[in-house]
Amino acid sequence: MLTYEEFEDLGGEAKFGALGEAVEPGELATRLRGVVEAWRGGSGLPVVWGEEGEPEALVMSTAQYRDLRGDDQPPAGVVDDPTVRVYATEPLPGSRPLDLDEWAANDPFTRELLDEIRAEERPPSDER
């Protein structure tokens, strides 16, 4: 699921074509089982939903999302179900631990949030 704005930003209409009118959330809930079955069968399109015809978000299969982003598909024979698939979790070459201070250093807002979180988590007797 992603917002319609994200879909547009990723060039969704160019990749999937016009997807039709936005369906109401209740209608989507009623149709969802059939939509997912179509995706599992290798057919079907993403479904746009929203209220009063205004597109707010999309529901799509993981394969469609990978296509939208330009990501690799799983190798042949691998079950295409993110709840079942096993993903590589080893660090990439050159990876290093995340340093929050380094990450927040160039953004005053993020720095302020990090400082506020640390102040809230600091024990009352800790005077720094």
How would a textbook summarize the main sheet? Answer: 3 strands, antiparallel
Mean pLDDT over all positions? 85
Distance between the termini: 44 Å
Low-confidence stretches: none
Counted beta strands: 3
* Secondary structure category: mainly alpha
Which descriptor suits the 3D outline?
extended
Strand order of the largest sheet: 1-3-2
How large is the radius of gyration?
A: 21 Å
**Helix fraction bin:** 40-55%
Approximate strand percentage:
5-15%
Number of helices: 6
Order of helices and strands: EHHHEEHHH
SSE layout:
Blueprint: E1 2-3, H1 4-9, H2 12-16, H3 25-40, E2 47-49, E3 57-59, H4 62-69, H5 100-104, H6 108-121
Antiparallel strand pairs: 1-3, 2-3
Could you explain the architecture of this structure?
With 128 residues, the protein is mainly alpha-helical. The chain is 42% helix and 6% strand. The chain has helices spanning 4-9, 12-16, 25-40, 62-69, 100-104, 108-121, and strands spanning 2-3, 47-49, 57-59. It has a three-stranded antiparallel beta sheet. The chain is extended.
In short:
The protein has 128 residues and is mainly alpha-helical.
For the structure shown, list the relevant keywords.
three-stranded antiparallel β-sheet, 6% strand, 6 helices, 42% helix, 128 residues, mainly alpha
